[in-house]
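Figure caption, in words: inputs first, then the predicted bound structure.
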Amino acid sequence: MIVGIGCDHAGLAMKEEMLALFKDLGFKYKDYGTFTKDSVDYPDFGLKVSEAVSKGEVDRGLLICGTGIGMSIVANKFTGVRAALCHEPYSAKMSRLHNDANILVLGGRVIGKGLAREIAMVWFTTEFEGGRHISRIDKIKEIEGNRCLKVKE
Ligand code: RB5
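Bound structure (D-ribose present):
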């Protein structure tokens, strides 16, 4: 499994913790930055990882910003991306089992490193359950392909 990982300045410390976890688990990864504590814009880094997942250049993604909210909003704009913002292991597990989530999003200012590690462990080791959930994922794909909703500026 190759994982694409990215963060903004608010997620940098947690990204470093996640890279240590990848090394422990023997995962290959591509690090899309950011690499310093300088303030950056989360959409720039969310875009890089989400595009890589959408194009199949990496198998899964992990995005981290302060709350995880901005990165989630960005990631879920991309075709084929199902990004799940999880701050406890139950949601992380269910997002794999039922939603076949392919990007995990964490808030570096919301939870500590220990909990983040636990969440990531569960998320990366849980497989999609398939079965009745396949047709639900298919409906998401249909919405992606067929709908252009006009939203208020
Ligand atoms: C950066 O200050 C912060 O806004 C960002 O990391 C994130 O929380 C946005 O959703």
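Helices lie at 12-25, 42-54, 69-75, 89-97, 113-125, 132-146.
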